[in-house]
Amino acid sequence: MPRHVAVIMDGNRRWAKRAGLLTSQGHEAGAKRLIEFSEFCFKLGIHTVSAFAFSTENWGRHKIEVKCLMSLIQHYLKSKIQYFQREETRVSVIGNLTKIPESLLRTVQEIEEATRSYKKKHLILAIDYSGRLDILRACKSIVKKSEKGLIREEDVDEALIERELLTNCTEFPSPDLLIRTSGEQRISNFFLWQLAYTELFFSPVLWPDFDKDKLLEALVSYQRRERRFGCRV
């Protein structure tokens, strides 16, 4: 069983269009699916679930849709604080949080503080996240520390860079399995460093329809693979 499963939740808008619903209703269905998805993962013994909730590039969408997404994320986080406490699930939010609404930022801080002590289950939400900017931010941090004399050139290795990435919040920063729904077959600037040896599973199913059976299908596919990390076994 993988320790860390990442998911790119794609297809909410197409799902809503096919169902004759509003785009906002598609995103609501997607948010509900994420709760069910993570809950089932944790029941199967998976430690960390990370979800690409809002990319840096998503700011280019229509302002009404962006506002709806920010409001929806805040509502779900706020309404699920007691749920995550009851389930003893730690929640972390990573990304450039300087541009998100102040009300959402307060909710993020509240839920992170309320769940920080939990160790066995970890849900990571990537909001205004960019894999390229994550690496760039890590490099800048290392340069600043070098200028202050805190690190030397010979100290810089993969482990140091990983500690500077935003996924340093979890015990398992590199996903074992990445799932992307809706038929798209790309990683779209998500976890560029962390996905170096991640197994990829692309599903044609739209995210709101990605149920337990589809998750099990992805996990079975993962378990059938031989992970060699570039070495012959």
TrEMBL record:
One Gene Ontology molecular-function label: ditrans,polycis-polyprenyl diphosphate synthase [(2E,6E)-farnesyl diphosphate specific] activity
Keyword Transferase: yes
Record carries keyword Transferase: yes
A Pfam short name: Prenyltransf
EC number: 2.5.1.-
Keyword entries, A-Z: Transferase
GO CC list: chloroplast stroma
Swiss-Prot/TrEMBL cofactor(s): Mg(2+)
Pathway listed: Protein modification; protein glycosylation
EC main group: transferase
Domain of life: Eukaryota
Function: Catalyzes cis-prenyl chain elongation to produce the polyprenyl backbone of dolichol, a glycosyl carrier-lipid required for the biosynthesis of several classes of glycoprotein.
Protein name: Alkyl transferase
